[in-house]
Amino acid sequence: MILNHFFLTIAVFLAFSSTSCSSVDEDLISNKKDPFENTNRKIFAFNDNLDTVILEPIAAGYNKVIPSHAKTAINNHVYWVGLPNNTINSALQRKWENAAISSLHFTVNALTLGFVNLMKEDEPPHQQDFGQTLAFYGISEGPYVVLPVTGGKTSRHTIAEVINFVINPYSAFREDKTIDQATSFQPVLSTISWRARNFELVNDLKYNSLDAYVRARSAYYQNRFKKIQSDNNINAPSEADSLFDNLDTEG
Amino acid sequence: MDRYLKLLIILFCTFFFGFAISSSTSLASKTENASSIVQKLIEKIQNIQETKYTEEEKRIEFLQVIRTFFDMNIVAKASTGPYWRTATSTEKKRYTELITELIADVTASQLGDISNVEFQLQSSTQKGDKMVIVSGELIVPNQSIGKINVNWRFSTPGSDVPKIIDVEFENISMLVAQKEENVAIIRKNGGVFSALITAIEEKLRK
Questions:
Q1: Which of B105, B106, B141, B152 is the most buried (most CB within 10 A)?
Q2: What ipTM was predicted for this assembly?
Q3: Which residues in chain A show pLDDT less than 70?
Q4: How far is residue A175's CA from residue B196's CA, in Å, rounded to a whole number?
Q5: Cβ A222–B188 below 8 Å, yes or no?
């Protein structure tokens, strides 16, 4: 656990220290939200290579070897592990009902350590992270930063990830060696399971796009925008809506 | 005078309700049309996937599908943003051909050997005067992703057949992503539109 904190801190420090000294000429950046594009691209290329060499083959093997019901069980467990954070963030955003549903799902599924979803029939809670909490309190999203290993996010979301990690409820069990080892393995398990679940989507982004960096950034922003808008019941037009609203169909 | 007033009221009512009914029927037919086009598109894709084509034959089939179901003029224009105006007519024509080929290639590569793709319609709604959004779930059997939420954005100008102008997978608009990529390439090359054409040609050659 301490090791995880250490690596995350180093990653955040590396990213921020390198980005702070290499913002690029405004004409050369492709998006105003991304003033550190030059450095971000270098870290993205590093992450891309890391994915090609390590994560992609592991995810391919995982998809091939692990039977589908076992994969579902692992996905359920990864989801269950995130529920305490979900409860805390729902409460911080005064979404009391979601906080209650989230803690109920956590408590009931604790009987199977989350591997079997005993509340399949009930509607699952909406996922809330600390980035959404900061957005709820009006903290601006800040520039886009790409971190080694964890990928590209807004600075608000990046800081939120660190806080999410630090306030991880499982840290209360740090004294217990077995739980400590199990929780240390969590980020690895959730990364592999996420990559395997999104195998085709990520490979499409990597191999079919003209500029994988820009496509990844666009996908992140669109997805994040939708998440924050729908959670806060804001009905602002999406980028696609604006694109077509402003499109002159003549000529 | 009374008779004239009555006649005037009857005429007004006939016109008003007639207009209201015809416009709501036209809205309903636009949304129904769009959702039936999605089903036709899925059937067409299933046919292609089930037939034993060579890679080149499959590519040609997908190219035909894109030309039939998509409004490539709008797609080409929207995906280049402000730089569309700076392109010559030859460049516009070439780019439209290339982006059509790129979409066909990407679709063929994404689908690979997947067959039995199903689309479960959830809603079809009018957006403004000229657009319809068809939403639903794409069921992809035997794939890690399983189900994907999809929105098909149609342009519905006048009496013409609705055509697809954008596809959103899990709320990510493919057209917005493509536009951002294109604009980045053009900007990196000092605003030269032909740089984008060269980049797509290179991509298609790979």
A1: B152
A2: 0.80
A3: 1-30, 167-184, 232-234, 248-251
A4: 57
A5: no
Q: Residue B197 in contact with residue B94, Cβ under 8 Å?
A: yes
Domain interval for residue B142: 2-205
Q: Please give the pLDDT value at position A19.
A: 44
Cα B120 → chain centroid: 18
Is residue A211 one of the residues assigned to a domain? yes
Give the 3-state secondary structure percentages of chain B, helix then strand then coil, rounded to 5.
60, 20, 20
For residue A50, the enclosing domain spans 2-24+35-244
Report yes or no on A70 lying in a domain.
yes
Q: To 5 degrees, how large is the angle CA A205–CA B74–CA A223?
A: 35
User: Residue B134 is encoded by which pair of tokens?
Assistant: 């068809």
Domain count, chain B: 1
Phi, psi (degrees; rounded to nearest 5) at A137: -90, 15
A209 and chain B: CB distance < 8 Å anywhere? Answer: yes
The verdict on a CB contact (< 8 Å) between A30 and B166 is no
Domain count, chain A: 1
Instruction: Answer whether A197 sits within 8 Å of B145, measured CB to CB.
Output: yes
pLDDT tens per residue, range B145-154 = 678 899 999 9
Strand ranges in B71-144 using DSSP code E only, listed in sequence order: 118-127, 131-139
